[in-house]
């Protein structure tokens, strides 16, 4: 599951107070950029694809609002494929806009002490607890890319308590899992974060990500959302930069 929405994305009346040209372009750009780091083969989304995506109908592009089509085309152009979450949630355009607006605020914010890799690892750990195939597969792919650690997310999927985590990562996931399980949050939870350099604002970020993806996981269950096949191998083998350079010189 990443990088930029758009001003037009907030056309719905409930979001008109956010609809500034600058904020819209930034949101669209960030979502597309997040997907762009995954760039692999391109597949067309002009018509409902043959592979299973959702148990709900996936609209044709011609039937969708212009702002959503524009976002989808930018994400697909920059990333090489369109993640199925965009297709599945386009069944309800207003909720699509709200979902990706909040997603962007949580996952692409430039403040706080959590890195992009940290945020993706929180999604992986909490999503496996919620048994969400889509989010586990897609966000473990993003974690591999952002962290440059091709095996850590797999370890977290099996059992985060046995994974080769740094103390800071372990405290972060312990807190995320407490929120995910709806444990009673105590001052000790905050102290555990503070011991590894994370403050209460970081705790809010961790909790908000865990809470948001608890909803996302359940929507994925409802729709029987399936991850794109591109996600499975993404970030497992480092890109051969020398090969890229050679191919560039040939061109």
Task: Describe what this molecule looks like in 3D.
By secondary structure, the chain is mainly α. The chain is 59% helix and 0% strand. It is built from twelve helices and no strands. Helix 4 (93-107) runs antiparallel to helix 10 (200-223), helix 5 (116-129) runs parallel beside helix 7 and helix 5 crosses helix 8 (167-180). The longest helix has 24 residues, at 200-223. Mean pLDDT is 85; it is low at 1-23 and 40-45.
> Which percent bin holds the helix content?
55-70%
End-to-end CA span: 32 Å
> Which structural class do you get from the secondary structure elements?
mainly alpha
| Topology, number of strands | 0
Arithmetic mean of pLDDT: 85
Beta-strand portion reads: under 5%
> Assembly state here?
single chain
From the alpha carbons, calculate the radius of gyration and give it in angstroms. Answer: 18 Å
Count up the helices.
12
Order of helices and strands: HHHHHHHHHHHH
Envelope shape: globular
Low-pLDDT residue intervals, each spanning 5 or more residues = 1-23, 40-45
In terms of topology, how is this protein built?
Elements: H1 21-36, H2 66-79, H3 84-89, H4 93-107, H5 116-129, H6 133-147, H7 152-159, H8 167-180, H9 187-194, H10 200-223, H11 230-233, H12 241-250
What's the gist of this structure?
This protein has helices at residues 21-36, 66-79, 84-89, 93-107, 116-129, 133-147, 152-159, 167-180, 187-194, 200-223, 230-233, 241-250. It is mainly alpha-helical and 251 residues long.
